[in-house]
Amino acid sequence: MDNKNVESSGLAVEAVDSIEEVAGKYPSYRRAHAKGVVYHAVFTPNGQAASLTTAPHLQNHEVQALVRFSNSSTNPSIPDVFSPAKGMAVQFELPDGGVTSLVTITLPIFFAKTPQSFIDILGTIKENSVEGATTADKFKAVMEKYEESRAGLQAVKMLQPPLSFATNRYHSIHAYYFINSNGERQAVKYEWEPEAGLHYLTNEEVKAQSPNYLEDELAERLSKGPVAFQLSVVLGQEGDPTDDPTSAWPEDRERIVVGELSITGIADEKAQDRVFDPTDVPTGIECSKDPILNFRHDAYAVSHDRRSQGQ
Ligand code: HEM
């Protein structure tokens, strides 16, 4: 292990410790996005990405996939309406027997630019978690201290509980590079667009939901047929930041639909053990230099280590 890895895994331990201190420790569960359900799916690329990348799952052949939908909270028993951001982690099976993961969320940007500022922001939330403090009070304290967090936390505040896991748009937030057979590079971000459209609950409807309404709703939906999402890539242009997850690209960037995911049914509980690592990319795709993206590899490994040992 070189010095850089030692340094970044030390920071990853610190980050996961900070999450536990601020948001609670739930043995055997993921240290974030603890409550989730895994499903089987098939991904069918449409060939539109083939001129941009040699990635095997984005050519012309369908691949099997696993999809884990989740609440963002660390609490595995939290009622779904109380955990605003939802995750959609997809693991594609590659023809060589390996996997690649695309881990997305219902927010377009993140609230921290670097691993260290993520830890510092959690520290500020902890300092401000005094009796009677609301989430809004804690967010205000963070935004006053960390300008970079403002847009990301505003986006969290704007989230509405979805009608279904199948009626959200999910974003990669981070940029990646597609590399084609000529070695040409194109910066991209990903989005999953639900074929069922975007649908959210009204305040009245929120009150009527059971704690696990999202899993129940998806079971009901799947009993009638597969649930589909289109995968789009957003093409970055010269000057669009590729290393800053707190900053969105302009809305008018070209989007290409590159394939369709069809979710068919629930997977075995054993699939929960998997790590959906957003840095696990195949030939034809490279991670950008975004420090948060690259840090997630070590942070997820620390969480997996703890949860797989029953800690
Ligand atoms: C410093 C930044 C971050 C840290 C420390 C962090 C930490 C974690 C940890 C510890 C887990 C549990 C991993 C496991 O046990 O398998 C997790 C899961 C997850 N995170 Fe992050 N995360 C960060 C940034 C992000 C960002 C920017 C996104 C947005 C796409 C994101 C989305 C998710 C999702 C969707 C999951 C659930 C994955 C699954 O279903 O297995 N995280 N995160």
UniProtKB/TrEMBL annotation:
The entry's keywords: Heme, Iron, Metal-binding, Oxidoreductase, Peroxidase
* Gene Ontology MF, one: peroxidase activity
User: According to the UniProt record, what class of enzyme is this?
Assistant: oxidoreductase
All copies of the Catalase core domain together span 1-311
- Which Enzyme Commission number(s) are on file for it? 1.11.1.-
| Keyword Nucleotide-binding in record | no
Cofactor requirement = heme
- SMART domains of this UniProt entry? Catalase
Family from the record: Belongs to the catalase family.
Entry-linked PANTHER family: CATALASE (PTHR11465)
What the protein does comes down to: Has an organic peroxide-dependent peroxidase activity.
Q: Could you tell me what this protein is called?
A: Catalase-related peroxidase
Q: Which organism is it from?
A: Paenibacillus gallinarum
